[in-house]
């Protein structure tokens, strides 16, 4: 483990070539069966995902890679999560993260846009060294899934979305890059049978992974999906985003057959209240003295990123 850490530190300072990073996600899933992913929306949060480690019972625990969330990338730019932040801007965020990290990256590709455009998008991500794109089976104006049926959202037909998957697959150059199909049936209250039928169809269309999303807080529907999904003969890696059902532990998720767990928004959601608190404190006190305890020391911020001296 320590040896691995030394290697990671060396890698960060040296950097990593796109082909090496791109391959890493598939390799880790194959070798370990499970990977823990955390959201990053800029270079600094990328560094947090890259470097944060804790030691527990002689084991070093860390994140396996990064999720470039549409919600957090948009929110960090002060924009709503409706595919308004265009692909050029999303690519800039990805580049900022890549500049300072070495771990594999999964990009939240929203609906993937037009199938004819997605063919180009996946090629760009593949060339950059991203390991996977997740595309969700919605059409029209996409809204964040956690709104559920409170807002109007339309699911693509199975045929239309399967076609999108196979077109995207055909345009790839390597075997490393994964197209992960995200099923919104449970979010849109279309039922378990619909979710399972779609999982079958999307795998047949060439999907390298399935993401099943749910906003139910008990986690029961995710457990039911996993049970039934695990019986598929041609099962591909399964990704979940336990935001609302976050009482379920990683161990339980592993036992349920989950291969990729994504903590999709926690760095942004934890930073925002801290920043608002500091801003309010300055207004309240007409000086920043009272923020001292809320802030990291000046020396620490100066030395946080090496090379600034
Ligand atoms: C995101 O992080 O942008 C996601 C996951 O798509 S969710 O917000 O839960 O829909
Ligand atoms: Mg998203």
Give a structural overview.
The chain has 309 residues and is α/β, with parallel strands linked by helices. It is 46% helix and 15% strand. It is built from 12 helices and 12 strands. The strands form 3 sheets. The protein has an 8-stranded parallel barrel, surrounded by 8 helices. Strands 2-3 form a two-stranded antiparallel ribbon. The longest helix has 20 residues, at 266-285. Mean pLDDT is 95; it is low at 1-6. It binds sulfopyruvate and magnesium ion. The site of sulfopyruvate has 11 residues, from helix 4.
Outline the fold blueprint.
Elements: H1 2-14, H2 18-32, E1 35-39, H3 43-51, E2 53-56, E3 59-62, E4 65-68, H4 70-76, H5 87-100, E5 105-108, H6 115-128, E6 132-136, E7 138-139, E8 154-155, H7 158-170, E9 178-183, H8 192-204, E10 209-212, H9 220-229, E11 238-240, H10 250-255, E12 260-263, H11 266-285, H12 298-304
Bound molecules: sulfopyruvate and magnesium ion (MG).
């Amino acid at each position: 483990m320590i040896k691995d850490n030394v290697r990671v530190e060396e890698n960060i300072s040296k950097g990593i070539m796109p082909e090496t990073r791109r391959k890493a996600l598939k390799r880790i899933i194959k070798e370990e069966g499970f990977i823990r992913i955390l959201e990053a929306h800029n270079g600094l949060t990328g560094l947090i995902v890259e470097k944060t480690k804790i030691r527990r019972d002689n084991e070093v625990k860390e994140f396996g890679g990064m999720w470039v969330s549409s919600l957090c990338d948009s929110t960090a730019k002060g924009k709503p999560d409706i595919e308004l932040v265009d692909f050029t801007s999303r690519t800039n965020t990805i580049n900022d993260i890549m500049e300072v990290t070495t771990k594999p990256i999964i990009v939240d590709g929203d609906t993937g846009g037009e199938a004819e455009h997605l063919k180009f998008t996946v090629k760009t991500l593949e060339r950059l060294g991203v390991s996977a794109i997740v595309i969700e089976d919605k059409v029209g104006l996409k809204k964040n899934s956690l709104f559920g049926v409170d807002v109007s959202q339309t699911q693509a037909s199975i045929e239309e979305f399967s076609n999108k998957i196979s077109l995207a697959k055909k345009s790839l150059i390597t075997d490393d890059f994964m197209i992960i199909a995200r099923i919104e049936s449970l979010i849109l209250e279309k039922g378990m049978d619909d979710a399972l039928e779609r999982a079958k169809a999307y795998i047949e269309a060439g999907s390298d992974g399935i993401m099943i999303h749910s906003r139910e807080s008990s986690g029961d529907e995710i457990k039911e999906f996993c049970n039934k999904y695990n019986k598929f003969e041609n099962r591909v890696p399964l990704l979940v985003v336990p935001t609302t059902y976050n009482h379920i532990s990683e161990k339980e998720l592993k036992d349920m057959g989950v291969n990729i767990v994504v903590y999709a928004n926690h760095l942004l959601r934890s930073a925002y209240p801290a920043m608002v608190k500091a801003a309010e404190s300055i207004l309240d006190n007409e000086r920043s003295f009272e923020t001292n305890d809320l802030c990291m020391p000046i020396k620490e911020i100066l030395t946080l990123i090496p090379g600034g001296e």
